[in-house]
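User: Sequence in, structure out. Go.
Assistant: Echoing your sequence, followed by the structure tokens.
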Amino acid sequence: MPIDHTIVSEAIALRRDIHAHPELGFSETGTTRRIVDVLERAGIECSVRPDGAGLWVDIGSGSRLVAFRCDLDALPITEATGLDFASVVERTMHACGHDAHAAIGVGIARTLNQMDFDGRVRIIFQPAEEIFPGGAVQMSAEGVLEDVEAILAYHVDPTMPTGCVGLKTGPITSSSDRFLFTVKGPGGHTARPHETVDTIGAAAKLAAELPGLVQRATDPRVPLALVFGSINGGNAANVIPTDVSLTGTLRLLDHDTWLEIPKVVERLAREIIAPTGADIVVEYETGIPPVINDVNVIAVVRSAISSALGADALRPAHQSMGAEDFANYLEAVPGALIRLGVGTGRPLHSATFDLDEDAIEVGIGAGVAALLGLLA
């Protein structure tokens, strides 16, 4: 599907502008203004969120409506790419490709705006994908999914060659929940542990035993990762502290298990701690569901992109235990997360991450084809 060269070149210029001026979650007001400026100059009316961070546009007419989500936020990373358009903002960088997602979304909107088709396409430019639990929750609450039949999104994939698109039915990214355990006791002297409760020992027991017990308490066919990220307690070598805190995340790829896992974790944590004599406070924060790509949506997208780019452009997409707040939209409507090859091999969320800008044209063309396929 040929794409207007001007639209592609201006999308690349927009990507570079956004890349040079990154903004963290829920502060993407400058990014939003840049996108609005390009779209309004193309004659597209924009609906900006009340706080100025994020927007959406509707293209076309008709009763049927499908959507495409783009994310806008950067990461708190100091850029080390050496690009001419590297970030000018201290300790802030587009290290996850959201600058390209936004530029592609603008290109899709402008391309569709030049076409005649039956139905409507809503392009959603969402803030705060990187913030737990994510800006998708807020935009959904604001009604951005009203009347939407299906929704798509990209995530750039530096391990996939430019020109290729990765598709997968079923789970493609993991859930992400957070927990905080506080192990409590009366405290005391390390010379007399028998007179008190060893909160450090109890916390160590919890950290050592909980991951394996959670695995045993859930379906072994469901990939699951419970990992501790911090353990804090005590200030002196000869003092048993009154409390020790442990934090971490739990990730899995099954929606039903995700709904049940908080009760499992709390029960097991209490059972582990009980023999030590310590008390435990369990704070479990349910965050982002797994992304489960809809089988029917994937079938339509596969056919449409194959027709537009050729069957050789399609690749199987890998599963990831990383989370993507696009999953929150899929709680309401069917959809699919699509991997877009950007061919650099540089890891996401790294200070040297970059992408092949030829992927922007591929993303526009594949996105237009997929969205029109959903409306067909």
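User: And one key feature?
Assistant: The mean pLDDT is 98.
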